[in-house]
Design goal:
325 residues; mainly beta; five-stranded mixed beta sheet; four-stranded antiparallel beta sheet; 21 strands; disordered N terminus
Length: 325
């Protein structure tokens, strides 16, 4: 195979081109590794509710797993009547347990909650496996200046713990957490704004994910419309800051709090790309030093079904990331 590649000059297939197995449906995915296995969690879909889970040994071939819990917790359903599934889970490891933050909401509404599940392992076959619901982390209601969905847990270099969150309205926020519990350090403290769209009719921003790399904190966000199948114009933007609380700025120096954001990944405007509306990214720094970006996109050739996508992320000489997509 290598000889054929060298003779023809053809590039080897990308990770996305090799993905197989259980990669549909996938919406708002995140990625983590435990031992020799990778685990991905995403928004509940179809008959796989309320949270969808899958695993892989090589990041290429994926198989389905039972979801972490059988139903939306009763307290979350009481807080958000009409909720059908759990959105945008976020997975991390802290203090000897895996933390799975999740959001419960209804489309286009601001009455939302973020909760927390924990488990000592991700492998359903291991002793001790089982997810414990730790309850409410943060809630929003109509009139608040944020929407409590799309959580992302992140640590700073001083040992502090934070939760990025938010969708539409006044944009993305950052809340300080108690590192021991994973809950808000001070429920009365105001949230720190980190990104929003420029003033105007389009407030579409969501899905914060913060990465610590190269002396910078990098904020990835999703702009524009998701959930429209192949008509989605969702895409990923990025900015960076020396401090986890910002200000995050794009390549041109425009603050993300003022609508800035350098495009990281976007389908072509001419509509030629098969996978449309790439967005809602998660990130994994693997133990071999490689970095990966996981996200979803809508497969134009399969009636717009949301599909798992996974790309190697590299860092250019100027310090900014590029994707092997």
């Amino acid at each position: 195979m290598l000889a054929a590649v060298l003779c023809t000059g053809a590039a080897p297939p990308s990770l996305n081109q090799r993905l197989s197995g259980d990669i549909v449906p996938a919406h708002d995915p995140v990625l983590i590794r435990e031992g020799d296995a990778y685990y991905a969690y995403s928004t509940g879909q179809r008959d796989r509710l309320p949270i969808l889970a899958r695993t892989s040994r090589d990041l290429v071939t994926w198989r389905a797993l039972p979801g972490p819990i059988p139903a939306i917790p009763a307290w979350a359903l009481a807080a958000v009547p009409g909720a059908k599934d759990i959105w945008a889970p976020d997975i991390s490891y802290a203090n000897g347990r895996y933390r799975l933050y999740y959001s419960v909401s209804t489309f286009g509404k601001q009455r939302s909650v973020i909760g927390l599940l924990t488990s000592p392992t991700l492998d359903p076959a291991k002793p001790g496996y089982g997810w414990r619901d730790e309850g409410l982390v943060i809630a929003s209601k109509p009139g608040d200046d944020y929407n409590a969905i799309d959580p992302n847990f992140v640590r700073d270099r001083e040992g502090g713990a934070w939760l990025a969150l938010g969708s539409y309205w006044t944009g993305l926020k950052l809340a300080r957490l108690d590192p021991a519990t994973g809950k808000l350090a001070d429920p009365a403290a105001p949230l720190t704004p980190i990104a929003r769209r420029a003033l105007g009719p389009n407030t579409a921003i969501e899905a914060a994910f913060i990465i610590d790399h190269g002396g910078w904190y990098w904020l990835i966000a999703s702009f524009d419309r998701c959930c429209q199948g192949a008509k989605s114009d969702y895409h990923l933007v990025i900015g960076r800051s020396r401090a986890i609380t910002g200000p995050y700025v794009d390549r041109a120096g425009t603050p993300m709090r003022d609508g800035g954001g350098t495009v990281l990944l976007q389908a072509d405007a001419a509509g030629k790309d098969r996978f449309r509306g790439p967005g809602h990214a998660g990130f994994l720094h693997d133990r071999d030093g490689r970095d990966y970006l996981i996200y979803h996109a809508y497969d134009r050739d399969r009636r717009g079904v949301p599909t798992l996508r996974l790309a190697r992320m590299r860092w250019a000489r100027d310090g900014w990331p590029v994707l092997d997509n």
